[in-house]
Amino acid sequence: MKKKLLLTAFSFLVLLGFTACNKLDVIGDKSIISFDAVIKASGNQVTEDSGFGGWSLEAPDKTARLVWSKDYSKTSSLDVFIETDVQPFIDAGLDTSKLPEGMLLGDKIVVGTDMGNDTLTYDGDATPLASYKQIVNLYRGNLKYHATLDHFGIDMTNGNMFEWAKNMATNDKDMVFVLNPQVFIDAGVDPNKVNGWVFAKVETMDAKGKKIQVDKLLKPFDLDGKN
């Protein structure tokens, strides 16, 4: 009887562990499906960036883009980053000399993250989706789920994100470029006056799982309406 109870308990723990793994993999599986949908909806806005060695997803208004690497061992600095026009920030009061070193490249603001130095290998051709899957497989900690907006996202660190809808059919914000406004405020920007960006309070969770409101600069797009 005791042996039977132990086997039953063990079976329950195995099932519980399997269920937990499945729940954890929702971010992996579902984010791949939804990212693929964004790529397909973006059409020719997704291109190869041969100079960088990766892929570029350009916003419909061409003022921002997401860039991600094919092979981290060949990327000299950032492996995934957001790039956006600096002029709207200058028009809103930005003193570019007060930005952190490396954040301004020419006429672009760049924020992102260095994933590491891994040599990425592929089963078949390297594609934009296949390179995203590498993030899922190797750097799951950089992927987030934003429950309030029903978005997945790539964490660029320091409060910067690229987010996309889990389901574009039920979401009017299919992709969103997200910037932490504080660095710009510290450099003289009035965040309410940055053309093309929305300064807003966004509900998220702190490290303890408590809901909090944080300030963000948002550039959202509805890919169905291309705006």
Tags for this entry?
six-stranded antiparallel beta sheet; 30% strand; disordered N terminus; alpha+beta; 227 residues
Word description of this protein:
The protein has 227 residues and is of the alpha+beta class. It has one domain (2-221). The protein is built from 5 helices and 12 strands. The strands form 2 sheets. The protein has a 6-stranded antiparallel beta sheet with strand order 1-2-3-4-6-5. It has a 6-stranded antiparallel beta sheet with strand order 7-8-9-10-12-11, with helices on one face. A hairpin with a 5-residue loop joins strand 2 (54-58) and strand 3. Helix 2 (26-42) runs antiparallel to helix 4 (128-138). The longest helix has 23 residues, at 2-24. The protein is globular and about 50 Å long. Residues 2-24 have low confidence and may be disordered.
Topology:
Elements: H1 2-24, H2 26-42, E1 46-49, E2 54-58, E3 64-69, E4 80-85, H3 87-91, E5 104-105, E6 108-113, H4 128-138, E7 143-146, E8 151-155, E9 161-165, E10 175-179, H5 182-186, E11 198-205, E12 211-221
Antiparallel strand pairs: 1-2, 2-3, 3-4, 4-6, 5-6, 7-8, 8-9, 9-10, 10-12, 11-12
Helix pairs in contact: 2-4
